[in-house]
Amino acid sequence: MSMDMKGDWDRRARTNAPWFIATSVEGGQEEFDASGRRDVGYFFDGLEELLHDEQDVLDIGCGIGRMDGFVAPHVRSLVGIDVSGEMVRKAAERLASLDNVRFVEGDGWTLQPLGDATLGLVISHICFQHMPRRVVSSYFAEVSRVLRTGGDFVFQMPEANADSPADPPDEDTFGMRFYEEQPLREELAGVGLEWQGARRFEVEAPNLTFNQLRIHVRKRA
Ligand SMILES: C[S@@+](CC[C@H](N)C(=O)[O-])C[C@H]1O[C@@H](n2cnc3c(N)ncnc32)[C@H](O)[C@@H]1O
Question: Domain extents for the chain?
């Protein structure tokens, strides 16, 4: 079986998008929206200055725009990209009332069709954890390409610890991958993204306790 990120995520979007996006949300629309507001709060805690009215933002793995609706009102423009055309379609419908937002279907590896050095901020939440590592590496290089000099990249990764399971096979486009800080730092530095800091949030998942890392790097001059 070969890896089919697009097909798998389109199927998940059609079956039950909110559940696959935020598996802890069992309630209805109101709870889903509340989770978006809450996660934007955690995600930008201490980094609020990155949200301002001259900021152009890209959200990688935007899903149905759960967080974007709470980010867009604070910035000049927001583009959400996702491998799933179904997710992107639902996101555009949900956030049709926001005129500074657009959504694009990506190829799952690159940030085409976005231009070089066109963005001030790239964000990604609970997205890289589902991808094979080589896909994440491809995105890191692409983030460096689309960011302006001095631009920021903020993203979440589950942190590896002694109990972390080994990576699932590449064909598994949902299972979690866990990362150590130091190799991530080195890889990001290698594509011109300079370490600004990491913050840890403890998470208790069924049978597993781990930290979420929120990593902040900046495009080097
Ligand atoms: C758990 S959802 C999170 C969505 C959104 N970030 C949020 O917090 O609401 C993961 C999203 O990543 C997308 N995704 C998975 N693999 C991807 C890839 N290779 N490139 C872009 N998006 C991907 C999925 O389609 C899905 O919308």
Answer: 5-219
Structure tokens at 88: 């992107």
Listed residue (167, 165, 162, 160) closest to 182, CA to CA: 160
The tens digit of pLDDT for each residue in 108-149 reads: 999 999 999 999 999 999 999 999 999 999 999 999 999 999
Q: How many A from CA of 126 to the centre of ligand 1?
A: 7
Nearest to 173, CA basis, from 52, 8, 12: 8
**For residue 101, which of 57, 132, 61 has the smallest C-alpha distance?**
57
Mutate to test the pocket of ligand 1, among 38, 82, 95, 171 (most ligand atoms within 8 A of CB): 82
Percentage, residues of the chain above pLDDT 90: 89
Residue of 70, 127, 136 best suited for mutating to test ligand 1, as the one with most atoms within 8 Å of CB: 127
CATH code of 5-219, in short, is 3.40.50.150
The model's pTM is 0.97
Amino acid identity of residue 205, one-letter, is A
Give, for 67, the enclosing helix (H) or strand (E).
none
Residue 166 alpha carbon to ligand 1 centre in Å: 21
Ligand 1 neighbours by CB, cut-off 6 Å: 5, 9, 21, 61-63, 66-67, 82-84, 87, 106, 108, 125-127, 130-131, 135
